[in-house]
Amino acid sequence: MPGRNEGQHFIKEKIKDKPLNKKQAVQRGFAVAGYAVLFGVVSCFIFCALRPVMEPWFQKEEEQWVGIPKDTLTDDDNTGDSLADNEETRADEEQKPEEDDEEQKTVYVTERKEMTLDDYQVLQNQLYQIGNRVNKSIVTVTGVKEGVDIFDSPYEAPGQASGLIIGNSRRELLILTEYEVIRDVKEIRVTFINNDTLDAELKKYDGNTGIAVLGVPVENIAAETMDEIETAVLGNSLNLRQGKMVVALGSPLGTNYSILTGNITSVTNTITTEDRNYTVFTTNIVSNTKGNGVLINTDGEVIGLFLKSSNIQKEQNTLTAVSISELKDIIEFLSNGLNIPYLGIKGSTVTDAISKEYDIPKGVYIKEAVADSPAMTAGLQTGDVIAAVNKKEILTMKDYQKALMKLKKGDEARITVNRQNADGYKKFNCTLEVGVLR
């Protein structure tokens, strides 16, 4: 058998590898590298071209916290020194022992010069220059509502108020205005000083003061408009004094971009609102109930807001403004889309003098627990004195406001109050659910 199969074997072949052509290998290597470079360049151009379109699909934008620095009362504001004070200081300096070196002598000129009409005109022109510069931060806010006339025909009714550019979160330009003009509207439009008009959206509003913050997408704002506008500087109004020169901007008489000048006539008035007390500045500037806008100082800084809101501004002929320093925490919350926590008490600080004279424990005296508020629902009532919020001692309205701003809607706040009965004041605790005033 083996011998018979020997002649039937297939031809056996040995396959050898083709000899390596080094020249062709080098050429292929350069070709592959060239294609890789070309692919990378083309991919880079395509990525750059499509990135603005595709990036929002895959990447969530980082939220930018809008921070507004808070103010403190300082004693270094000497801009209000009178001429008599200056002359007295100079007289004291003149009475100092003479220096041996005659060249070191200082000569003070104390000659009085009465201002002429031209001098007053120069001063007025300077105030208007300040106003015109800050007007770049003023906008016109228009709220468009739908209505029906007597023939049942639909129409759009616009309402207008001034607004103030207060910040740029990189994603949105933030506008401070009044909620009344945009309440229940179909559209919100913002018109800048160069008449460029864009759509805006409501971020949040405060039902207490009636102020609101709007957002205008930065990507929708033309470069020319960005060059024309400016962000307002919110100044320190805690140091404001009687007699200071101020400028009213916005629409103090109902027409936007008005500029009115005057002086502060009082800085001691306060108003009590739900959960907060505010300082109100009065001026000798003519105004009306239809006006709103801002009050600025001679440095061009915003120091007050004057509002249409009935719970802030009463009917009167002269302009009154709420201290901007006392609104900054509210504005910061609204700018970041946060609700303003609400309990619903109207109160005042029990000072040392009041505590001794009327034998009332120190804390926040409740003048009123507002109807249907969390405070009333929890059983707080007029005459109670708040001693603590969540075990944090409360001695003043400022303490109460700080404690409240650390809460948010839906939180439970444990309130410790002193309530008077036949045996005097007794402490008791109650729990409130924090709400939001609409």
How large is the count of helical segments? 9
Molecular shape: globular
Rg result: 35 Å
The profile of the biggest β sheet is: 7 strands, antiparallel
Mean pLDDT across the residues is 83
SS-based structural class? alpha+beta
Q: How many β-strands, per DSSP?
A: 21
What is the H/E order? HHHHEEEEEEEHEEEEEEHEEHEHEEHEEE
Cα-to-Cα separation, first versus last residue:
108 Å
Low-confidence stretches: 76-102
Query: Helical content, roughly?
Result: 10-25%
Task: Write up this protein.
It is built from nine helices and 21 strands. With 438 residues, the protein is α+β, with helices and mostly antiparallel strands. A seven-stranded antiparallel sheet has the order 5-4-1-2-3-7-6, with helices on one face. A six-stranded antiparallel β-barrel has the order 8-9-10-13-12-11.
